[in-house]
Design a protein that fits this description.
Blueprint: E1 5-7, E2 10-17, E3 20-25, E4 27-31, E5 36-40
Antiparallel strand pairs: 1-2, 2-3, 4-5
């Protein structure tokens, strides 16, 4: 649940593209104990930020877990 944020335009996640956080609005479906179904707005296999609150603004530089800083 930490990956999903909400604002006046709806629910969103931050995808990771080319080392940057990109805000993507999603449509959610069924909520389970430890997961949420994403019905649209994300492609299968997309890398997302696990906790949306860590991103201050879209376009922020990010790196994948285990990736070393340049």
């Amino acid at each position: 649940y930490k990956a999903i944020g909400q604002d006046e335009n709806g629910e969103y996640v931050y995808r990771i593209e080319n080392g940057r956080a990109v805000k993507s609005y999603i449509v959610t479906g069924q909520e389970l104990e430890d997961a949420v179904e994403v019905q649209s707005g994300l492609e299968l296999g997309a890398s997302i930020v696990e906790d949306h609150s860590l991103i201050r603004s879209a376009g922020q530089l990010v790196r994948l877990k285990g990736e070393k800083a340049a």
